[in-house]
Amino acid sequence: MTVRAGPDLLDLTEVHRFPNRPVRTGGTLRWDIPALYEGVIDGLRAAGPVASVGIDSWAVDYGLLDAEGELLGNPVHYRDSRTEGVAQQVWETLPATELYAATGLQYAPFNTLYQLVAARETPELASAKRLLLIPDLLTYWLTGQSGTELTNASTTQLIDPRTGDWAYGVAAWLGIDLSLFAPLRRPGDPAGHLLPRVLAETGLTGPVPVTAVGSHDTASAVAAVPATTDRFAYICTGTWSLAGVELDAPVLTEASRTANFTNELGIDGTVRYLRNIMGLWLLQECLREWGGPDDLTALLREAAEAPPLRSVVDAGDASFLAPGRMPERIAEACRDAGAPAPRTRAETLRCILDSLALAHRRTIAEAARLADHPVDVVHIVGGGARNTLLCQLTADACGLPVVAGPAEAAALGNALVQARAHGLFGDRAAMRELVARTQLLTRYEPGGDAAAWQAAERRVHTG
Protein backbone atom coordinates (compact mmCIF):
# COMPACT_ATOMS: atom_id res chain seq x y z
CA MET A 1 0.00 0.00 0.00
CA THR A 2 1.12 3.54 -0.69
CA VAL A 3 -0.46 6.45 1.17
CA ARG A 4 -0.29 10.15 0.37
CA ALA A 5 -0.90 12.18 3.50
CA GLY A 6 -1.16 15.87 4.24
CA PRO A 7 -3.27 18.35 6.23
CA ASP A 8 -6.31 17.71 3.99
CA LEU A 9 -5.22 14.55 2.21
CA LEU A 10 -5.24 10.87 3.09
CA ASP A 11 -5.26 8.78 -0.04
CA LEU A 12 -4.46 5.06 -0.14
CA THR A 13 -3.53 3.07 -3.24
CA GLU A 14 -3.02 -0.67 -3.38
CA VAL A 15 0.06 -1.26 -5.53
CA HIS A 16 0.80 -4.91 -4.79
CA ARG A 17 -0.88 -7.68 -2.83
CA PHE A 18 0.72 -11.07 -2.30
CA PRO A 19 -0.37 -14.34 -0.68
CA ASN A 20 0.75 -15.48 2.76
CA ARG A 21 0.74 -19.28 2.62
CA PRO A 22 2.09 -21.21 5.61
CA VAL A 23 4.14 -24.32 4.91
CA ARG A 24 4.38 -27.56 6.87
CA THR A 25 7.87 -29.05 7.09
CA GLY A 26 8.83 -31.98 9.27
CA GLY A 27 5.43 -31.89 10.93
CA THR A 28 5.80 -28.22 11.98
CA LEU A 29 3.64 -25.41 10.62
CA ARG A 30 5.84 -22.46 9.59
CA TRP A 31 5.63 -19.10 7.84
CA ASP A 32 7.25 -18.82 4.41
CA ILE A 33 9.15 -15.70 5.45
CA PRO A 34 11.44 -15.51 2.37
CA ALA A 35 8.33 -15.38 0.17
CA LEU A 36 6.88 -12.61 2.35
CA TYR A 37 10.11 -10.62 2.08
CA GLU A 38 10.06 -11.06 -1.69
CA GLY A 39 6.49 -9.73 -1.64
CA VAL A 40 7.70 -6.64 0.25
CA ILE A 41 10.46 -6.07 -2.32
CA ASP A 42 7.97 -6.46 -5.17
CA GLY A 43 5.67 -3.98 -3.43
CA LEU A 44 8.43 -1.39 -3.04
CA ARG A 45 9.33 -1.84 -6.71
CA ALA A 46 5.70 -1.29 -7.71
CA ALA A 47 5.29 1.70 -5.39
CA GLY A 48 7.82 3.90 -7.13
CA PRO A 49 9.39 6.87 -5.28
CA VAL A 50 8.52 6.87 -1.56
CA ALA A 51 9.36 9.25 1.28
CA SER A 52 9.28 6.66 4.07
CA VAL A 53 8.65 2.95 4.67
CA GLY A 54 6.98 1.24 7.66
CA ILE A 55 6.32 -2.44 8.32
CA ASP A 56 3.48 -3.94 10.35
CA SER A 57 2.31 -7.54 10.65
CA TRP A 58 0.68 -9.97 13.01
CA ALA A 59 1.97 -10.51 16.55
CA VAL A 60 3.77 -13.10 18.74
CA ASP A 61 5.83 -14.97 16.09
CA TYR A 62 9.56 -14.50 15.59
CA GLY A 63 12.62 -15.48 13.59
CA LEU A 64 15.93 -16.60 15.07
CA LEU A 65 19.28 -15.39 13.70
CA ASP A 66 22.78 -16.82 14.15
CA ALA A 67 25.93 -14.85 14.98
CA GLU A 68 26.29 -13.81 11.33
CA GLY A 69 22.70 -12.54 11.21
CA GLU A 70 21.45 -15.45 9.08
CA LEU A 71 17.98 -16.87 9.65
CA LEU A 72 17.91 -20.25 11.43
CA GLY A 73 14.87 -21.67 9.63
CA ASN A 74 11.43 -20.36 8.77
CA PRO A 75 9.57 -18.96 11.81
CA VAL A 76 7.09 -21.33 13.46
CA HIS A 77 3.42 -20.44 12.95
CA TYR A 78 1.40 -19.55 16.05
CA ARG A 79 -1.23 -22.11 15.03
CA ASP A 80 1.32 -24.92 15.26
CA SER A 81 0.60 -27.44 18.01
CA ARG A 82 3.97 -27.16 19.78
CA THR A 83 2.57 -24.96 22.57
CA GLU A 84 -0.22 -27.33 23.59
CA GLY A 85 -0.06 -27.76 27.36
CA VAL A 86 2.92 -25.40 27.74
CA ALA A 87 0.96 -22.70 29.57
CA GLN A 88 0.02 -25.18 32.29
CA GLN A 89 3.71 -26.08 32.69
CA VAL A 90 4.62 -22.40 33.00
CA TRP A 91 1.93 -21.81 35.61
CA GLU A 92 3.48 -24.52 37.80
CA THR A 93 6.56 -22.30 38.01
CA LEU A 94 4.91 -18.90 37.81
CA PRO A 95 1.19 -18.92 38.69
CA ALA A 96 -1.18 -17.39 36.15
CA THR A 97 -2.26 -14.74 38.66
CA GLU A 98 1.31 -13.51 39.14
CA LEU A 99 2.06 -13.65 35.42
CA TYR A 100 -0.96 -11.48 34.64
CA ALA A 101 -0.17 -9.02 37.44
CA ALA A 102 3.28 -8.56 35.91
CA THR A 103 2.43 -8.46 32.20
CA GLY A 104 -1.34 -7.89 31.90
CA LEU A 105 -1.52 -10.22 28.92
CA GLN A 106 -4.46 -12.50 28.20
CA TYR A 107 -4.03 -16.23 28.11
CA ALA A 108 -3.51 -17.41 24.56
CA PRO A 109 -1.66 -20.68 23.99
CA PHE A 110 0.53 -19.10 21.30
CA ASN A 111 1.93 -16.14 23.27
CA THR A 112 5.64 -15.69 22.55
CA LEU A 113 6.51 -16.60 26.11
CA TYR A 114 4.94 -20.05 25.69
CA GLN A 115 6.57 -20.45 22.28
CA LEU A 116 9.99 -19.80 23.81
CA VAL A 117 9.39 -22.30 26.60
CA ALA A 118 8.24 -24.87 24.03
CA ALA A 119 11.40 -24.23 21.98
CA ARG A 120 13.75 -24.40 24.96
CA GLU A 121 15.53 -27.64 23.94
CA THR A 122 15.58 -27.03 20.18
CA PRO A 123 18.87 -26.62 18.26
CA GLU A 124 17.56 -23.43 16.62
CA LEU A 125 17.07 -21.62 19.93
CA ALA A 126 20.36 -22.98 21.31
CA SER A 127 22.21 -21.54 18.30
CA ALA A 128 20.38 -18.22 18.19
CA LYS A 129 22.11 -14.93 18.93
CA ARG A 130 19.20 -12.68 18.05
CA LEU A 131 15.39 -12.96 18.10
CA LEU A 132 13.34 -10.63 15.92
CA LEU A 133 9.57 -10.42 15.81
CA ILE A 134 8.17 -10.75 12.28
CA PRO A 135 7.91 -7.04 11.33
CA ASP A 136 11.29 -6.37 12.94
CA LEU A 137 12.81 -9.23 10.94
CA LEU A 138 11.53 -7.76 7.67
CA THR A 139 12.77 -4.32 8.73
CA TYR A 140 16.19 -5.81 9.55
CA TRP A 141 16.45 -7.29 6.06
CA LEU A 142 15.56 -3.91 4.57
CA THR A 143 17.92 -1.80 6.70
CA GLY A 144 20.53 -4.03 8.35
CA GLN A 145 19.49 -2.54 11.71
CA SER A 146 17.70 -4.54 14.39
CA GLY A 147 15.21 -3.37 16.97
CA THR A 148 12.15 -4.58 18.86
CA GLU A 149 9.12 -2.35 18.29
CA LEU A 150 7.16 -1.90 21.50
CA THR A 151 3.54 -2.43 20.40
CA ASN A 152 4.44 -5.85 19.03
CA ALA A 153 6.78 -6.61 21.93
CA SER A 154 3.83 -6.05 24.26
CA THR A 155 2.19 -9.20 22.81
CA THR A 156 5.10 -11.43 23.88
CA GLN A 157 4.01 -11.60 27.56
CA LEU A 158 7.46 -10.29 28.42
CA ILE A 159 6.63 -6.55 28.70
CA ASP A 160 5.44 -4.67 31.79
CA PRO A 161 2.56 -2.50 30.46
CA ARG A 162 2.99 -0.02 33.31
CA THR A 163 6.58 0.85 32.41
CA GLY A 164 6.76 -0.02 28.71
CA ASP A 165 9.92 -1.96 29.48
CA TRP A 166 10.78 -5.63 29.77
CA ALA A 167 9.26 -7.66 32.60
CA TYR A 168 12.69 -8.66 33.84
CA GLY A 169 11.41 -10.67 36.79
CA VAL A 170 9.16 -12.84 34.60
CA ALA A 171 11.98 -13.55 32.16
CA ALA A 172 14.42 -14.41 34.94
CA TRP A 173 11.92 -16.67 36.71
CA LEU A 174 11.29 -18.65 33.53
CA GLY A 175 14.87 -18.68 32.29
CA ILE A 176 14.21 -16.59 29.17
CA ASP A 177 17.28 -14.71 27.92
CA LEU A 178 16.16 -11.16 27.14
CA SER A 179 19.53 -10.41 25.54
CA LEU A 180 18.23 -12.30 22.50
CA PHE A 181 15.92 -9.35 21.83
CA ALA A 182 17.15 -6.22 20.09
CA PRO A 183 16.72 -2.88 21.91
CA LEU A 184 13.18 -1.59 22.22
CA ARG A 185 11.98 1.16 19.92
CA ARG A 186 8.66 2.99 19.76
CA PRO A 187 6.28 4.05 17.00
CA GLY A 188 7.80 7.03 15.22
CA ASP A 189 11.40 6.13 16.03
CA PRO A 190 13.82 5.92 13.10
CA ALA A 191 14.58 2.32 12.06
CA GLY A 192 17.34 2.94 9.53
CA HIS A 193 17.41 3.44 5.77
CA LEU A 194 16.91 1.05 2.88
CA LEU A 195 20.19 -0.74 2.16
CA PRO A 196 21.97 -0.12 -1.15
CA ARG A 197 21.12 -3.63 -2.34
CA VAL A 198 17.43 -3.02 -1.55
CA LEU A 199 17.53 0.23 -3.50
CA ALA A 200 19.10 -1.63 -6.41
CA GLU A 201 16.46 -4.40 -6.28
CA THR A 202 13.54 -1.99 -6.11
CA GLY A 203 14.79 0.78 -8.39
CA LEU A 204 14.29 3.35 -5.65
CA THR A 205 16.59 6.31 -5.20
CA GLY A 206 17.98 6.78 -1.71
CA PRO A 207 18.14 7.73 0.95
CA VAL A 208 14.78 6.19 1.92
CA PRO A 209 14.13 6.22 5.68
CA VAL A 210 12.39 3.34 7.41
CA THR A 211 10.24 4.40 10.35
CA ALA A 212 9.09 2.26 13.26
CA VAL A 213 5.29 2.24 13.32
CA GLY A 214 2.73 0.39 15.40
CA SER A 215 4.23 -2.80 14.01
CA HIS A 216 1.50 -4.97 15.48
CA ASP A 217 -1.13 -4.42 12.80
CA THR A 218 -3.81 -3.94 15.45
CA ALA A 219 -1.84 -1.07 16.97
CA SER A 220 -1.72 0.59 13.55
CA ALA A 221 -5.41 -0.10 12.97
CA VAL A 222 -6.43 1.43 16.32
CA ALA A 223 -4.32 4.50 15.50
CA ALA A 224 -6.58 5.02 12.47
CA VAL A 225 -9.92 4.58 14.27
CA PRO A 226 -11.91 7.69 13.19
CA ALA A 227 -13.14 8.44 16.70
CA THR A 228 -14.32 11.93 17.59
CA THR A 229 -14.73 11.17 21.30
CA ASP A 230 -12.89 9.17 23.95
CA ARG A 231 -16.05 7.18 24.71
CA PHE A 232 -15.60 4.62 21.95
CA ALA A 233 -14.92 0.94 21.53
CA TYR A 234 -13.21 -0.59 18.53
CA ILE A 235 -13.35 -3.93 16.76
CA CYS A 236 -10.43 -4.65 14.45
CA THR A 237 -11.82 -7.30 12.17
CA GLY A 238 -10.07 -9.72 9.91
CA THR A 239 -8.81 -13.20 10.63
CA TRP A 240 -9.32 -12.18 14.28
CA SER A 241 -11.83 -9.83 15.85
CA LEU A 242 -9.94 -7.77 18.41
CA ALA A 243 -12.50 -5.91 20.45
CA GLY A 244 -11.85 -3.44 23.24
CA VAL A 245 -11.23 0.13 24.35
CA GLU A 246 -8.27 2.52 24.39
CA LEU A 247 -6.96 3.44 27.85
CA ASP A 248 -4.24 5.52 29.45
CA ALA A 249 -3.23 2.79 31.91
CA PRO A 250 -3.50 -1.01 32.11
CA VAL A 251 -6.17 -2.91 34.03
CA LEU A 252 -4.41 -5.62 36.04
CA THR A 253 -7.19 -6.78 38.33
CA GLU A 254 -8.04 -10.40 38.99
CA ALA A 255 -11.45 -9.80 37.44
CA SER A 256 -9.72 -8.66 34.27
CA ARG A 257 -7.54 -11.77 34.22
CA THR A 258 -10.42 -14.18 34.67
CA ALA A 259 -12.29 -12.40 31.86
CA ASN A 260 -9.15 -12.94 29.74
CA PHE A 261 -8.59 -9.34 28.69
CA THR A 262 -5.21 -8.23 27.48
CA ASN A 263 -3.27 -5.00 27.98
CA GLU A 264 -1.29 -4.45 24.79
CA LEU A 265 0.46 -1.18 24.12
CA GLY A 266 -0.50 1.31 21.43
CA ILE A 267 0.93 4.52 20.07
CA ASP A 268 1.62 7.44 22.44
CA GLY A 269 1.79 5.21 25.50
CA THR A 270 -1.84 4.10 25.23
CA VAL A 271 -3.11 0.67 26.24
CA ARG A 272 -5.18 -1.49 23.90
CA TYR A 273 -7.45 -3.18 26.41
CA LEU A 274 -9.05 -5.95 24.39
CA ARG A 275 -9.97 -9.58 23.99
CA ASN A 276 -9.27 -11.89 21.06
CA ILE A 277 -12.27 -13.39 19.25
CA MET A 278 -11.80 -15.92 16.45
CA GLY A 279 -13.10 -13.47 13.85
CA LEU A 280 -13.55 -14.08 10.15
CA TRP A 281 -11.13 -17.01 10.41
CA LEU A 282 -14.27 -19.08 10.98
CA LEU A 283 -15.68 -17.94 7.64
CA GLN A 284 -12.34 -18.21 5.83
CA GLU A 285 -11.91 -21.80 6.94
CA CYS A 286 -15.47 -22.71 5.92
CA LEU A 287 -14.95 -21.18 2.48
CA ARG A 288 -11.70 -23.12 2.12
CA GLU A 289 -13.46 -26.36 3.00
CA TRP A 290 -16.26 -25.56 0.54
CA GLY A 291 -13.83 -24.68 -2.25
CA GLY A 292 -15.48 -21.29 -2.68
CA PRO A 293 -18.21 -20.28 -3.01
CA ASP A 294 -17.77 -18.27 -6.18
CA ASP A 295 -20.33 -15.67 -5.07
CA LEU A 296 -19.92 -14.74 -1.41
CA THR A 297 -22.29 -11.79 -1.87
CA ALA A 298 -25.12 -14.15 -2.80
CA LEU A 299 -24.34 -16.38 0.17
CA LEU A 300 -24.43 -13.37 2.48
CA ARG A 301 -27.86 -12.43 1.11
CA GLU A 302 -29.07 -15.95 1.88
CA ALA A 303 -27.55 -15.73 5.37
CA ALA A 304 -29.40 -12.46 6.00
CA GLU A 305 -32.67 -14.30 5.31
CA ALA A 306 -31.79 -17.29 7.53
CA PRO A 307 -33.45 -17.54 10.97
CA PRO A 308 -31.59 -15.25 13.40
CA LEU A 309 -29.87 -16.65 16.49
CA ARG A 310 -31.09 -20.16 15.72
CA SER A 311 -27.60 -21.58 16.16
CA VAL A 312 -24.81 -19.75 18.02
CA VAL A 313 -21.41 -20.82 19.38
CA ASP A 314 -18.76 -19.19 21.54
CA ALA A 315 -16.64 -17.39 18.92
CA GLY A 316 -13.87 -16.92 21.45
CA ASP A 317 -13.44 -20.64 22.12
CA ALA A 318 -9.88 -21.87 21.52
CA SER A 319 -11.30 -25.09 20.04
CA PHE A 320 -11.70 -23.14 16.77
CA LEU A 321 -8.04 -22.09 16.65
CA ALA A 322 -6.66 -24.92 14.50
CA PRO A 323 -7.42 -25.20 10.78
CA GLY A 324 -9.51 -27.93 9.18
CA ARG A 325 -13.10 -29.25 9.23
CA MET A 326 -14.52 -25.91 10.34
CA PRO A 327 -18.13 -26.43 9.13
CA GLU A 328 -18.29 -29.79 10.90
CA ARG A 329 -16.71 -28.40 14.06
CA ILE A 330 -19.20 -25.55 14.18
CA ALA A 331 -22.06 -28.03 13.78
CA GLU A 332 -20.61 -30.21 16.53
CA ALA A 333 -20.31 -27.21 18.87
CA CYS A 334 -23.96 -26.36 18.24
CA ARG A 335 -25.07 -29.91 19.02
CA ASP A 336 -22.89 -30.03 22.14
CA ALA A 337 -24.62 -26.86 23.34
CA GLY A 338 -28.05 -28.36 22.69
CA ALA A 339 -28.70 -26.06 19.73
CA PRO A 340 -29.74 -27.15 16.23
CA ALA A 341 -26.80 -27.57 13.88
CA PRO A 342 -26.78 -25.47 10.69
CA ARG A 343 -28.22 -27.40 7.75
CA THR A 344 -26.96 -25.29 4.83
CA ARG A 345 -24.00 -23.12 3.98
CA ALA A 346 -26.14 -20.02 4.46
CA GLU A 347 -27.19 -21.19 7.91
CA THR A 348 -23.55 -21.91 8.79
CA LEU A 349 -22.60 -18.40 7.72
CA ARG A 350 -25.49 -16.92 9.72
CA CYS A 351 -24.33 -18.94 12.74
CA ILE A 352 -20.81 -17.50 12.35
CA LEU A 353 -21.96 -13.89 12.01
CA ASP A 354 -24.53 -14.11 14.81
CA SER A 355 -21.87 -15.71 17.02
CA LEU A 356 -19.32 -13.01 16.20
CA ALA A 357 -21.84 -10.25 16.91
CA LEU A 358 -22.71 -11.94 20.19
CA ALA A 359 -19.01 -12.13 21.13
CA HIS A 360 -18.58 -8.47 20.19
CA ARG A 361 -21.51 -7.58 22.45
CA ARG A 362 -20.17 -9.49 25.43
CA THR A 363 -16.58 -8.29 25.01
CA ILE A 364 -17.39 -4.60 24.65
CA ALA A 365 -19.76 -4.63 27.61
CA GLU A 366 -17.18 -6.37 29.79
CA ALA A 367 -14.35 -4.09 28.66
CA ALA A 368 -16.41 -1.00 29.49
CA ARG A 369 -17.28 -2.40 32.92
CA LEU A 370 -13.83 -3.72 33.88
CA ALA A 371 -12.05 -0.56 32.72
CA ASP A 372 -14.76 1.81 33.99
CA HIS A 373 -14.78 3.29 30.50
CA PRO A 374 -18.23 4.27 29.12
CA VAL A 375 -18.85 3.48 25.45
CA ASP A 376 -21.22 5.48 23.23
CA VAL A 377 -20.19 4.18 19.81
CA VAL A 378 -18.46 1.14 18.33
CA HIS A 379 -15.96 1.54 15.49
CA ILE A 380 -15.41 -1.45 13.21
CA VAL A 381 -12.22 -1.22 11.17
CA GLY A 382 -10.43 -3.74 8.97
CA GLY A 383 -11.81 -6.16 6.44
CA GLY A 384 -14.98 -6.88 8.40
CA ALA A 385 -16.06 -3.25 7.91
CA ARG A 386 -17.07 -4.30 4.38
CA ASN A 387 -19.42 -6.99 5.71
CA THR A 388 -22.68 -5.08 6.04
CA LEU A 389 -24.51 -7.96 7.70
CA LEU A 390 -21.84 -8.36 10.39
CA CYS A 391 -21.82 -4.61 11.05
CA GLN A 392 -25.62 -4.41 11.41
CA LEU A 393 -25.73 -7.52 13.62
CA THR A 394 -23.03 -6.02 15.82
CA ALA A 395 -25.03 -2.80 16.21
CA ASP A 396 -28.14 -4.83 17.05
CA ALA A 397 -26.29 -7.04 19.53
CA CYS A 398 -24.48 -4.20 21.30
CA GLY A 399 -27.43 -1.83 21.28
CA LEU A 400 -25.03 0.89 20.13
CA PRO A 401 -24.40 2.68 16.84
CA VAL A 402 -21.61 1.16 14.76
CA VAL A 403 -19.37 3.23 12.49
CA ALA A 404 -17.73 0.97 9.91
CA GLY A 405 -14.50 1.89 8.16
CA PRO A 406 -11.87 2.33 7.09
CA ALA A 407 -11.31 -1.22 5.85
CA GLU A 408 -7.57 -0.58 5.41
CA ALA A 409 -7.13 0.95 8.86
CA ALA A 410 -3.82 -0.81 9.57
CA ALA A 411 -2.23 0.60 6.41
CA LEU A 412 -3.58 4.09 7.16
CA GLY A 413 -2.43 4.00 10.79
CA ASN A 414 0.99 2.80 9.69
CA ALA A 415 1.29 5.68 7.22
CA LEU A 416 -0.04 8.28 9.65
CA VAL A 417 2.60 7.40 12.23
CA GLN A 418 5.25 7.77 9.54
CA ALA A 419 3.80 11.10 8.43
CA ARG A 420 3.72 12.37 11.99
CA ALA A 421 7.33 11.33 12.52
CA HIS A 422 8.19 13.50 9.53
CA GLY A 423 6.34 16.50 10.97
CA LEU A 424 2.98 16.40 9.17
CA PHE A 425 0.72 15.96 12.22
CA GLY A 426 0.74 17.04 15.81
CA ASP A 427 -1.23 14.54 17.85
CA ARG A 428 -3.37 11.41 17.77
CA ALA A 429 -6.61 13.40 17.72
CA ALA A 430 -5.52 15.24 14.57
CA MET A 431 -4.69 11.95 12.87
CA ARG A 432 -8.11 10.53 13.71
CA GLU A 433 -9.90 13.69 12.65
CA LEU A 434 -8.21 13.41 9.24
CA VAL A 435 -9.35 9.80 8.90
CA ALA A 436 -12.93 10.75 9.82
CA ARG A 437 -12.89 13.63 7.31
CA THR A 438 -11.35 11.84 4.34
CA GLN A 439 -12.42 8.18 4.49
CA LEU A 440 -15.71 6.54 3.50
CA LEU A 441 -17.55 5.57 6.70
CA THR A 442 -20.93 3.87 7.13
CA ARG A 443 -23.09 4.23 10.23
CA TYR A 444 -25.40 1.44 11.44
CA GLU A 445 -28.07 2.16 14.02
CA PRO A 446 -29.08 -0.57 16.47
CA GLY A 447 -32.35 -2.38 15.99
CA GLY A 448 -33.70 -5.89 16.28
CA ASP A 449 -34.84 -7.74 19.38
CA ALA A 450 -32.65 -6.90 22.40
CA ALA A 451 -34.26 -9.67 24.48
CA ALA A 452 -33.33 -12.24 21.83
CA TRP A 453 -29.66 -11.24 22.05
CA GLN A 454 -29.77 -11.47 25.83
CA ALA A 455 -31.29 -14.93 25.63
CA ALA A 456 -28.69 -16.08 23.09
CA GLU A 457 -25.89 -14.86 25.34
CA ARG A 458 -27.31 -16.83 28.24
CA ARG A 459 -27.50 -19.97 26.05
CA VAL A 460 -23.86 -19.69 25.03
CA HIS A 461 -22.33 -18.73 28.36
CA THR A 462 -24.49 -20.47 30.93
CA GLY A 463 -25.29 -23.65 29.00
Provide structural commentary:
With 463 residues, this protein is α+β, with helices and mostly antiparallel strands. The chain has 19 helices and 19 strands. It has helices at 33-47, 86-93, 96-103, 112-118, 123-127, 134-143, 150-153, 168-174, 196-202, 217-223, 254-258, 281-290, 296-305, 326-336, 345-371, 388-398, 409-421, 428-438, 450-462, and strands at residues 2-6, 9-13, 23-25, 28-30, 62-65, 130-133, 148-149, 159-160, 165-166, 184-185, 190-193, 209-211, 232-237, 241-247, 262-265, 271-277, 377-382, 402-404, 442-444. It has a 7-stranded mixed β-sheet, sandwiched between helices. Strand 17 (377-382), helix 16 and strand 18 (402-404) form a beta-alpha-beta unit. Helix 10 packs across helix 17, helix 13 crosses helix 15 and helix 15 (345-371) crosses helix 16. The longest helix is centred in the last third of the chain and has 27 residues, at 345-371. The chain starts with a strand and ends with a helix.
- The proportion of residues forming helix, as a percent range, comes to 40-55%
Total strand count, please?
19
Spans of at least 5 consecutive residues with low confidence: none
Task: Specify the oligomeric state.
Answer: single chain
The fraction of residues assigned to DSSP E strands is 15-25%
Structural class, by secondary structure, is alpha+beta
Choose one word for the global shape.
Answer: globular
Radius of gyration from the alpha-carbon trace, in angstroms: 22 Å
Q: What profile does the largest beta sheet have?
A: 7 strands, mixed
